[in-house]
Amino acid sequence: MALTRNFVLQVASAAKEAAYDTAAAIDQRINVNIGNIPQESVQVIDDSDKVGGSEEATDAVVFAQSASLDLGINRVKPFALGFVGAYGLGAVSSALADSGSAASSVKQHTCTPVDNDGSMNSFSFEAWKTASTKVKYSGGLLSSLSLSVNRGANRMVNLTAAVVASGTTASGGGAQTEPAETQLNAATAGIWLDHTALAAGKAVASARSQTLDPSTSDLASPTDIAASVRSVTWDFSNNVNIDDLYRVGGGNTLAVGQRSGRSQSLTLDFDYADDTYITALKSQTEYAFQMIVRGAAAAAVGDAGYYHGFNLIFPVMQLQNVEVADDSGTLVNRMTFTVMDDDGGTHKSVYFDVFNEQAAYMA
Fold first, then answer.
1. Considering only CA atoms, which of 50, 70, 47 is closest in space to residue 58?
2. What is the block-wise mean pLDDT of the chain (363 residues), using blocks of 10 residues?
3. Which of 40, 166, 274, 275 is 20 to 30 A (C-alpha) from 88?
C-alpha cells in the first residue's frame, strides 16, 4: 500500500527546457495539496467501427498520449509563485531588490506576459509515487493559474495552476528540498484601486515597491480598499489547445509548446457602499489595481528592510460585470474586471514582482 502523504512533487524551476520536451535538471520540491498527482492520458482506438466478421473488436492501437497536473498550493510560498509566474506569464527578469547593492541577497523576480508568436517555455517535473516509482515528465506547460485571498481568520494566499505535459516519461533522479520560506499571509497586505493610469515610470522594476511596504502604494491616486475587501482572485490563462499540440510527423506525444491568445481577469468582492461601480461599468471607467503581500524578513544582515512576498499590479482594467449581492446578511459588491492591454502606453498588462532569495527562474 502507498500512502498519499508520502507522494513527492519536484520541479525544474531554475532551468527551462533547452527545446520542447528535452528534459531539464530538477532543482526543488514543491509541497502541493494532497491529491495533486500527475495523470497520464493514453488514447486508444479499436476497430469496432469497422466490419470484420465478429461482434467484438479485434485490434486496438495507441494513437496519442499526454500528461496533466492540477497544481494546488494552499498557503503558498514565494518560491512557488516565482516558478508559476515565470512559466505562466512567459517572461521573467531577476535583479537584487535593493537596486544592485552587493549586500543584498533578496531578488525581485518580475514576471510579465510575453509578446511573441505563442511559443511557450517548457519545464520538467517529477512525481515520486513510492520510494521505487519515480517518474520524470518533460514538456510541461503552464496552461493557467489562479491566485486568491479571502477575508476571515484564514487569510493565507492560495494558488492553483493547470499543467499539461508532452506524455514523455523517464525515471526520476535524486531528492530535492523545498526552500526554507514562510507561507504567505494576507494579514500583512495592502490593496488599492486607482481611477488613473499607472505612471509611466513604474514600468521600471526598481521604481516599484522593493520593500513590500503594505502601507505605501505605487499607484498615483490610490484608494485603500484592504479593510473592505472580502476576496481577491486573479485568473490568468494561456488557453492552451492540447489537440493542436499534436503534429503530423510528431509521434504520439505533444510536439510543441504553444498557446492560444491569453486572457486574464480580476474578481473583487468587498463591502457595498454605493453604486459607484455600477456607474463605472456603464461608463467603462479605467482602473489600476495593486496588491502587496509582505512575508518574512530576509535573514541576511545586509538584507535589513527587505522581505519575501509579492507585488501584483494591473496598470489598466475595465469593469466587465458588477453585482450587488448578499453575503451572510451583508450587502457586497461582486465585480469582475477585464485586465487590459495598455494600448499605446509603456506598460505590460500585469506586473507580478516576486521577492525571495532564489537566484533566477526559467534561465
1. 47
2. 83 98 97 95 94 88 97 97 98 84 82 94 96 95 98 97 98 94 96 89 92 94 95 98 96 96 95 95 96 91 85 97 93 96 89 96 97
3. 40
